[in-house]
Amino acid sequence: MITENYDVIVIGGGAIGLATAYHLGQRQAKTLVLEQYTFVNQLGSSAGVSRQFRIPYPDEYMVQMALDSQPYWDELQKKTDTQLLDKVGTLWFGDPEVHSTEGNIAEAEKALEALGVPYTNLTSKEIEEQYHFKNLPDNYVGLFQPDGASINFKATIETLLSLCQKEETVELREDSPVLEIKQNGELFELTTPNGIYIAKKLAIIPGPYINSVINLLDFKIEATYWNMSSAYFKKTDPTIQYPTWFVFQNATGDNGNQFYGFPSVEWDHPEYIRVAPDFVITPLEEPSDRTLIPNPQELAYTSQWIHNHMTGLSIVPEYTSTCLIALSTIPNKELLIDFAPSYVPNHKNIVVYATGWAAKFTPFLGKIMSDLALDGHTDFDITPFRLGYKYFLAL
Which of 31, 40, 34, 41 minimizes the C-alpha distance to 11? Predict the structure, then answer.
């Protein structure tokens, strides 16, 4: 069955896809969201309950993006009675020489200073005294930025879904993977198991499943896939609380690599603290290889790190989860925001977001993607996130 035309079809109904659809609805654009699974599923990069909102980054443009995201979180919070952000601050600490997937502490300090963002420097001993860590090497340093928060990510997605359901011009279709994309002049014709849908423009935001969609347009993005482990550890001291945090260290025989953690929150096992490795031992070849069972060695490293360096927690994980993430293999490119490459017909009407850790930017990315789809441009400078067509691979 062929439906009437849409202004924009959003492919992918995760957090950022729903945020994009919400902003499109706010502009009265006739919008269809196609989600291959069900909404609020646990099978992609929107899996899990909590995420970190933080401002520290080693690059000024990323710090600026975090700052620009704040008013959009404030706006979204006004739409729900459920608390979306628990503002506990961000603690970065560890070996000052380490450069990790998150960057480097000294570079982050320079970026924060350049944009006038307040933070506090900490010594190894101050980190232990103020934030419940222990046995840290003497050379470790830290920074604390007070605007960091734990994101109630499940509630964020549910809020965006509810807002989309209320928008008169937004339609939602789940269990609707896109099987084929044809072009008829300036229109796109998308085939799903539930029907054929026609649109003037496409916003392609399917998280780690990006290539399964853009392959239908004869190009792909080079990415690696992580099945990220996560675990919850019971508090042995019920009064203890942590900020959101990340530790920078080099891998050794008994510590794995980088780790990060969250405070206890009412919405996510409140008697527990979530701690997770920020590495995977074996990346996946394809998203279809993901599993809901965490890698046991990654969890063992996490438990050992808690035993060595954290207080007030059991070292045995009682709840676990995984999250599938796609990471760009392009140097210095975490988030990819661009139009389709020029050899794709109608490429300026195809907007693509892919790869990276972006939950903290969810409502702002929805604004950016909706403006790119409708206007062909955005007020926010996306230059650092553009692929450059040499990085798109033709099939």
Answer: 34
